[in-house]
Amino acid sequence: MQDDWHELQEEVKALREEQERMNERLKVVYQWLAYIEKSLPLHEKTPPPAKAGAPAEEAAPPAAPPSADSPRPSKRTPQELEAKIGGIWLNRIGIIIFLLGAAFFLKLAYDWGWINETARLALGAVVAAILLWLGERNRRRGFTAYGQGLTGGGIALLYFTIFASFYYYNLVSSTAGMGLLILVTVGAVALALYQNARAVAVIGLLTAFLNPAFFVAGEPRFILLMVYLILLNLGLIAIVYFKRWHFVGIISFVLTSLFLAGVPLYRFGNPALGLPALPTQLFLSIFLLLFVVPLLLHVTVRQRSLGPPGLFLMAAGAVIYYSLSWFNLHADYFDSIGWFTLGLAGFYLLAGFVLLPASRRDPRAYFTAFTLASTFLLLFVPLQLKDSWVLVGWTLQAVLLCYLGLRLADRRIRGGFWIVLSLALARLLSAEWTRPLAPENYRFLVNRTALLTFGFIAVLLLLGWLYHRFQEPGKPSREVIILGGTAGLLLLIFGSLEIHRFGSALAWRTGAREYYYNMALMMVSLFWGVSAAALMAAGFIRKLPLLRYAAIGLLSLTVVKVLLFDLSFLEPAYRIISLVVSGLILLAVSYLYQRHRNRIDPAA
């Protein structure tokens, strides 16, 4: 009877303290509302007229504006901070220190022969049961934070005891031990959900990561360790999925990654054990799915957006998984790492399409998946493909990104497209255009470099057409101008380079160096002039001033070359031909302007 009376007094006291804190908070809220009302314009704070016949309500006295020394609602008072430190943090730290002390005491008692293995584990189970009972009892008495700390400690001690019983002492079979761990995991998840207790998840399940650190010494039993970590993460992921305690998922991911990083390190540090790479990779892939699949379900099934923690898990999971996989596979399967990278790119591409229907609600989720897929595709190309296929692979990836970016109207994907296209262009210029020639086998415009260049130019024109198709009617977009201009510039430069190479090859074959040298220089000038005339004609036909401006610029460059270079270095016959043909081209262009001047200026 006295215990019940004492418990009732404690509860009444706690209710009075909570009421006083609520009164203080409400007072601050009223002060801020009065301050906001005073700062509003007069027409916004005028009360609406009362309805006819309705009783007038008694007006509340205006509250004074918050004074300078009034505490802001967002700041904690020293009393609240003290209560949190003393009531919560000391509890959490105390239970962890108690568990460490209990573990070392049990080990010392066993080493000194005070108790045997069975007694040691039985004592651990009894203490864990007592902690769980005390935790639930204190929670029901109103000491929620204190009770949750004890409950979490009991769960952690159960993990510790069961794991030691089958992994370290072999008192029970591995199957029975894993079955008990499954029961503990289910019970821990149920308690965390039932009590809405973050402390149970943090102290209980996350403290269970200490078990491998305590017991895995010498030669670890790889499969048991991986299954144990899988069970732990299943419990934590269930809590994150249902309660949205994202910090639990982040901590679980970091701790799991640390353990997984130790597995490949242990493999290469102990080659005599013969730990195979493929089973290791299988478990690494299982952990990737454990962290990615709940994110997909969160967006598609629960129809919620991924916050920064979810996006971090998706991106960091891919980076950690690929890094560990590279370290695990490179020694035995180096030639297959490229195909592995392609498979991972396909996985994230599929994830992006799964997230695509929810793009309006959460555009960051599918964009992150597509970004990861593009990154792995980018890595696949130089890893698995060789020589000119690197250029082909990056070019095809650029086309895919361009189409997706335009089809989904996502500027971020189109930004990735420009990066990949720039890499492909750099590869063309640095690896293909600088390839040494074999004059005896050289064929003008029918060689590997020419075919790759013309194919790349065709791709640029295709991409320009895609941008033109998806743009609004009107003037050409900036992207169309850039792509078309780059294609034309590449054609002009490569055509000039190819003419020069052809002349050099003929000079090597025949020995007539001066003849073919002059011929090549003259043909370059003619090629520039004909290209300018073609641009001018296209500009008039399509009514595009930009093409005409480009033609005028190229004609100006041709005139400068003819007057400053051809007159100085060409033989008289070639000099005459260059001057005459260039003059005829200029006259033809001028005739076009006179003939179609009304298309430029109707008043002319």
Task: Please state the overall shape, judged from the principal axes of the Cα atoms.
Answer: elongated
Give the C-alpha Rg.
38 Å
Distance between the termini: 112 Å
Quick check: average pLDDT? 76
Task: Outline the fold blueprint.
Blueprint lengths: L1 H38 L2 H4 L32 H34 L5 H24 L3 H25 L5 H22 L2 H10 L2 H6 L6 H22 L2 H24 L7 H24 L7 H22 L7 H19 L7 H22 L3 H20 L3 H22 L15 H23 L7 H33 L2 H30 L2 H25 L2 H24 L1 H4 L4
Helix pairs in contact: 3-5, 4-5, 5-6, 5-7, 6-7, 6-9, 9-10, 9-11, 10-11, 10-12, 11-12, 12-14, 13-14, 14-15, 14-16, 15-16, 15-17, 17-18, 18-19, 19-20, 19-21, 20-21
Key terms for this structure?
4 domains, single chain, 22 helices, mainly alpha
